Amino acid sequence: xxxxxxxxxxxxGLEEFEKQYKAPHCVVLDSEYCSMGRMIxxxxxxxxxxxxxxxxxxxxxxxxxxxxxxxVLEFEKKLRPAVLTKEEITEDPMWQKISAAMNKAIDLALxxxxxxxxxxxxxxxxxxxxxxxxxxxxxxxxxxxxxxxAKVSPFYADLTDRDTIIRMIQEEDNVRINTRIAxxxxxxxxxENYDLCINSETFGRDYAAELLAAVMKGVxx
Length: 221
Description:
By secondary structure, the chain is α/β, with parallel strands linked by helices. Helices cover 47% and strands 11% of the residues.
């Protein structure tokens, strides 16, 4: 159907067309490896006044759980080669220990005030706890640029073969995919499962952070 937008002024005041977006208590930010999601999320938090949390920071808040970032990295070696089933992940005792620590840390983060959680939570996890949440996916569609950024990492700085670097990037994303499989029935990276998807290759690091900060500020009051 072709509609003339000039004839739609009569929708003003209709509740169906007047919903306002308000700042959420929490933003969950997923990101493809080398999409600059961590840097963008951190910068957006500084602009909006939100607290920033990722795996390292979350674990620092719950030392009593006895889980270190080294434990997480060691476990994630199992998640790298391929996409697993929920049972294969959640029945692993180490996953259960890590998951319990992360969940406790997320509870503490939410209680402290508005926050952004990078790569460690699903929207349903937050809303089930009684908090408002907006889900965001950060992606980048230029593989050549992602390869350049991957080689900045000390983990991959010595790699020169393009196919090997691409495989490493996919393995990094497999960790994210498998983590989400364990957390939720909504697949990681599928646009329908997010409130907003941002192509950081199009907008660049700084303006992507501006966009994300605007989401976090919302309509105040």
